[in-house]
Design brief:
The complex is a heterodimer of chains A (about 230) and B (about 475).
Chain A lengths: L1 E5 L3 H13 L3 E5 L2 H7 L6 E4 L2 E2 L2 E2 L4 H5 L6 E6 L4 H9 L4 E4 L4 H15 L7 E3 L2 E4 L4 E4 L2 E3 L3 H12 L7 H8 L10 H13 L4 E4 L3 E4 L13
Parallel strand pairs in A: 1-2, 1-3, 3-6, 6-7
Antiparallel strand pairs in A: 4-5, 8-9, 9-10, 10-11, 12-13
Helix pairs in contact in A: 6-7, 6-8
Chain B lengths: L6 H10 L4 H52 L4 H17 L7 E6 L4 E4 L15 E5 L2 E8 L4 E8 H49 L19 H49 L4 H30 L8 E4 H18 L3 E6 L3 E4 L1 H18 L5 E9 L2 E8 L32 H11 L2 E6 L9 E7 L11
Parallel strand pairs in B: 7-9
Antiparallel strand pairs in B: 1-2, 1-5, 3-4, 4-5, 6-8, 9-10, 10-12, 11-12
The chains are: A alpha/beta (about 230), B alpha+beta (about 475).
């Protein structure tokens, strides 16, 4: 899941980014509004937004976010703790509001809840066919058996299962698992798709030739030993 | 009939009391007027007396001269007596004149002839011509040299006094009426003046001791303005000093937020990444706990600085249900971490207050329940319309506090006994809420256990029901 973090305090930004990276999010971190605007075409699921930024008020970014073809969910992370600030933020289009100081696990929990709401799910856990995913613990179970996943494999799986009916382009999948700094090498998506198919069944992911990939249905695991 | 005076009447009485401006003013003005009136009366009486005496003396002298000419032509006493009696009768018949007295004496003072109303006592020599006062008479003595006799003609002095008294009375009666009228006008003017002063005094006296806003200058009389302006300057200085202090606390606490957030985040990240021995994880947990405590203390200082203002917080209608929903949402994560349920029970109610103040108060109450409500499983945040008014309640089912502790909980830096050792609370939360409630003209009450349950703690902010002009809720 790709996140844009807009936070000007370097110590705080660094800690939040590192924590979210560890939680298998792909995080782009910027410290200015201008840089945040420049990032916007990226397919972010969530934007974590500080309000008191050196080059303006974080709230001024919200219209641009709302104007995107698929608007990301917005979590405001701010020192402004007044109820009127909270209401102003939510009224301006933010989906959630968290006041500093905060627990890092709470940021992660709120981001999961936002992603869930954005995907139209009502329960925290994802159940598709025989597959069951707990986003809070990042545990993937197939027929009741835990399936080990690397961070990138998990992110790719989440991107596919969050939009089960959609065909996701390679670019979209790259956006879901890589930060801007990391970049993606050619064919890397195919490598991860292939690994997921081995772990979850060959029909788990359908290939839409010339377009991208789509979630299919998890089935018999053909070869689980290979890359576990 | 009640023996208590209405406050307005009481103030009026106080205004008339000893040492009041109004009494002093009225007394001085009336005394001054009376003195002036007295001087006027005495002065005019003196002038009148002089005038009456002068005119009467002229008349007496003229009468005397006429009578003297009669007796000088009548050497025989019998003829003279007839002439004098005729003249006396003629004079008495004229309107406005009393009968004068006369007598004729020889050079030794023996009476030769006298009118019936003249005194009988002999006149002691030497006899002198001219005017003199004698035993209540004004006497003119004239010499009849051809017959070696003296003629004395006299008016009673009492007649002159009566004239004077009558004249003075006629003169002073209108003055007395004028004095009464002046007294009435003085009282009216001074009462109107005092009403102005009283209004200013009442405005100052009825002021909330916590309010440091300027006193209004409208309706203040010119003479009182410098005093009110001086008081306003003083209030402004006190207010500014307090504001600077509050602002310092507020800014310091606010500026601390981000560094504390950064430190807490770094420590939490470190704890997450920590692969070392279990002791290290314990140390990290302790560090996190300290950071959380520091953060909470900074929060409370910030809240205290906000709550400590003096102006009433009643500027807007606050939708309590919205405040409850947002606050419950904010603390849901913390409650879940503690394995407790945090539920909102709302009715569509609005109160006169301040959105941020209600938010801050409720935040403190919910934090209070989370920190101090150990042993509980559920925290209820309730807003509803009750018989006594509109209530915002935070009810937990924790251990609660003893009845003896309840009254002191709203004092600063007082913690409930069950957390004194852990120092989890800053001891400011309920004091902050009490201050905010007072500024919103509401009341904070604490109950432990809450009504109809065995254990727990309840904090309730109660607003009097608004007077019917609340906007309709959608």
């Amino acid at each position: 899941m790709r996140i844009l973090l807009v936070e000007d305090d370097s110590a705080l930004g660094l800690a939040v980014r590192d924590y979210l990276l560890r939680e298998s999010y792909a995080v782009d971190w910027v410290t200015r509004l201008g840089a945040a605007r420049a990032c916007l075409p990226g397919n972010y699921v969530c934007v974590v937004l500080d309000l008191g930024l050196p080059d303006g008020d974080g709230l001024s970014l919200l219209p641009a976010l709302r104007a995107l073809p698929v608007p990301p969910a917005v979590l405001i992370l701010t020192a402004r703790d007044r109820l009127s600030d909270r209401i102003r933020g939510l009224d301006a289009g933010a989906d959630d509001y968290l006041v500093k100081p905060f627990d890092l696990p709470e940021v992660s929990a709120r981001l999961r809840a936002l992603a869930r709401r954005r995907a139209g799910r009502r329960t925290p856990n994802i159940e598709i066919g025989r597959l069951r995913i707990d986003p809070a613990t990042r545990v993937v179970m197939l027929d009741g058996t835990k399936v080990e996943m690397s961070a990138h494999e998990y992110s790719l799986l989440m991107a596919l299962v969050e939009h089960p009916g959609n065909i996701l382009s390679r670019r979209q999948l790259e956006d879901a698992i890589y930060t801007m700094d990391e970049g993606a090498t050619s064919n890397v998506i195919e490598v991860y798709i292939s690994r997921l198919r081995r772990k979850l069944g060959k029909d788990a992911i359908r290939t839409a030739r010339g377009y991208g990939y789509q979630w299919g249905c998890a089935g018999e695991v053909q070869d689980q030993a290979g890359d576990a | 009939m009640s023996g208590d005076y209405p406050p307005e009447l009481g103030q009026r009485f106080r205004l008339w009391g000893a040492g009041s401006l109004m009494t002093t003013l009225a007394r001085s003005l009336l005394l001054g007027l009376a003195l002036l009136w007295l001087i006027g009366v005495v002065g005019s009486g003196y002038v009148l007396q002089r005038m009456i005496d002068g005119k009467s003396d002229d008349e007496l002298l003229e009468t005397g001269n006429i009578l003297a000419s009669f007796i000088s032509r009548s050497p025989d006493l019998t003829t003279a007596a007839t002439a004098l009696a005729d003249a006396q009768a003629r004079a008495a018949s004229a309107p406005g004149h009393d009968r004068f007295a006369y007598r004729v004496v020889d050079g030794t003072g023996r009476i030769l002839l006298r009118s019936s109303n003249a005194p009988v006592a002999d006149v002691l020599p030497p006899l002198r011509e001219g005017l003199a006062n004698l035993d209540g008479w004004r006497v003119v003595t004239l010499a009849d040299r051809s017959n070696a006799r003296y003629l004395q003609v006299a008016d009673p002095l009492s007649e002159r006094r009566e004239t004077l008294v009558s004249a003075v009375l006629w003169l002073t009666a209108p003055l007395a009426i004028l004095l009464a009228f002046a007294g009435f006008m003085v009282l009216r003017a001074s009462r109107s003046l005092m009403d102005h002063v009283q209004r200013t005094a009442t405005a100052v006296a009825e002021r909330d001791p916590q309010a440091l806003g300027v006193l209004p200058l409208s309706g203040v009389v010119t003479e009182m303005r410098p005093a009110v302006e001086a008081a306003n300057r003083l209030l402004a200085r006190v207010s500014h000093a307090l504001e600077v202090e509050r602002s310092f606390t507020y800014n310091s606490a606010h500026e601390l937020r981000t560094p504390i957030a950064a430190a807490l985040a770094q420590v939490q990240l470190m704890a997450t990444l920590c692969e070392g021995p279990p002791e290290l994880k314990v140390q990290a947990a302790r560090l996190i706990e300290s950071m959380v405590r520091l953060s909470r203390l900074s929060e409370r200082l910030l809240a205290l600085a906000r709550a400590e203002g003096t102006e009433p917080l009643v500027s807007q209608w606050v939708d309590l249900a919205q405040v409850v929903r947002l606050t419950v949402d904010e603390f849901q994560y913390d409650a879940r971490l503690q394995g407790r349920e945090l539920v909102a029970e709302t009715e569509a109610v609005r109160v006169r207050g301040d959105l941020d103040a209600v938010g801050l108060a409720l935040r403190n109450l919910v934090e209070n329940a989370l920190v101090h409500g150990a042993g509980g499983t559920c925290i209820r945040v309730v807003c509803r319309n009750e018989s006594r008014g509109i209530a915002l309640r935070v009810i937990d089912d924790g251990h609660g506090v003893s009845a003896a502790e309840l009254p002191s909980l709203t004092e600063r830096f007082t913690r409930a006994g069950n957390v004194a050792d852990t120092a989890a609370g800053a001891g400011l939360g309920l004091a902050i809420v009490a201050m905010l409630a007072r500024r919103m003209r509401a009341r904070l009450t604490l109950h432990s256990p809450p009504a109809a349950v065995a254990t727990g703690f309840e904090a309730c902010i109660l607003w009097a029901r608004p007077s019917g002009d609340a906007p309709k809720l959608r």
